[in-house]
Amino acid sequence: MVTSPPATDPDGLPRLPFRQPDLLEVPPEALDLQARCPVSRVRTPTGDTAWLVTGYDEVRRVYADDRFGMSHRSPQTAPRLGASLLLGGPNGDFDTQPAERLKARARLAPYFSPKRMRAFRPRVEALTESMLAAIEAAGPPADLHADLSVRLPVTVICELLGVDERDRYRFREWTQGVADVSDRERSLTALTELMSFTQDLVARKRAEPGNDVISALCRDEDGTIPDGYIAFLAAMLLFAGHETTVVRLDHAILLMLAHPDQRTAAFAEPGRLAPAVEEILRVVVHGGVRETLRWAREDVPLGDVTIGDGDLVVLYSAAANRDAQVFGNPCEFDVSRPPRPHVTLGFGAHYCLGAPLVRMELEAVLSRIFTRFPGLHLTVPMDRLEARREVLTGGLAALPVAW
């Protein structure tokens, strides 16, 4: 276990984001905090104080406790993690946000059910084949981040939502801007433009409906759901439906390149890939801290501390998934690990609606890429790969490979 003390600010608090020497590993400071105090006071990049939750049981308790929410009584003065309007601070009306979130989940859940995703699997596999063929035809070297990890999730979520092909890459820049943790003006501009785009999209679907999620939402409840609300849902789906999957695809390929023995084990026999994907999801590290944010709606005991009313809570799933109280050899990547639920995709009522889609895209890529490119390798040392630090979702700026 790492025992080196975390970097601190003048008040003695560890400061986010933590330094991450290895792209595939949780920052040592987070593991040290987990061993000493799984619910710890930290300082965010905005200078606010927050509680960093690194313990597995504690993360699940926060997810399961409705005394933690995504809104705040005083949003203008609430502690924040970053400048991003969508991801860096509280969202929604304090009195109505919990109920509105449950209502939104209920509306969207049928369109992302495991049954619907199974029906969509052949299309995801065909898209993956097409993109890998294009990469092969272009010849090495290639940037798998741009040519596959970004392109596949963008295409998939746009097909599900009914976004025309000519529009599909317009919103990629917007979603990057929305997630910017350092530039509030960029975040505001990007969110405004993304919402304008989805409002136009909803208007087009009202006029010319298709076989897609946005058209279905326009028909739901006898067509009475307000256009502005559907546009908001569309913007959230366009963002959430691809951004974190980009990171996970990059990370999955990196893990398999760094651990050829585990890659061999994952394909040793039929049925081994799905557990391997779960292990990849368990160990995925988005960069620094993969933040899920909550604000206490009242004083709440958690572990050995009491979270104060209005306090910011940062759930660090990558550290929780390496909790030695839950996982044997927790920092080891082992595709034969006995199944144990991780918290990468949330927990309970906050479990990710897109989980079946995430798994499907990972399986589609991993089941094909190393067969098509058995000699796949990085063209730069792993420690030379550039991480994205300006966006809350983290990940890589590029994934240069040859074969």
In words, what does this structure look like?
The chain is α+β, with helices and mostly antiparallel strands. The chain has a single domain, classed as Cytochrome P450 (Cytochrome p450), CATH 1.10.630. It contains 14 helices and ten strands. The protein has helices at residues 28-36, 56-64, 97-108, 114-138, 144-161, 170-178, 184-207, 213-223, 227-240, 243-258, 260-266, 273-283, 317-320, 355-372; strands at residues 39-43, 49-53, 68-69, 142-143, 291-296, 300-302, 305-307, 312-316, 377-378, 400-402. The strands form three sheets. Strands 1-2-8-5-3 form a five-stranded mixed beta sheet. A three-stranded antiparallel beta sheet has the order 4-10-9. It has a two-stranded antiparallel sheet with strand order 6-7. Strand 1 (39-43) and strand 2 form a beta hairpin. Helix 4 (114-138) packs parallel to helix 14 (355-372) and helix 7 (184-207) packs across helix 8 (213-223). The longest helix has 25 residues, at 114-138. It starts with 27 loop residues before the first helix and ends with a strand. The model is unreliable at 1-6 (pLDDT under 50).
Helix coverage percent of residues? Answer: 40-55%
What structural category arises from helix and sheet content?
A: alpha+beta
Give the strand content. 5-15%
> Can you count the beta strands?
10
The stretches of 5 or more residues where confidence is low (pLDDT under 50) are 1-6
Report the CATH topology name: Cytochrome p450
CATH superfamily: Cytochrome P450
The assembly state of the depicted protein chains is: single chain
Radius of gyration: 21 Å
Domain tally: 1
- Apparent shape: globular
CATH class: Mainly Alpha
| Pattern of helices and strands | HEEHEHHEHHHHHHHHEEEEHHEE
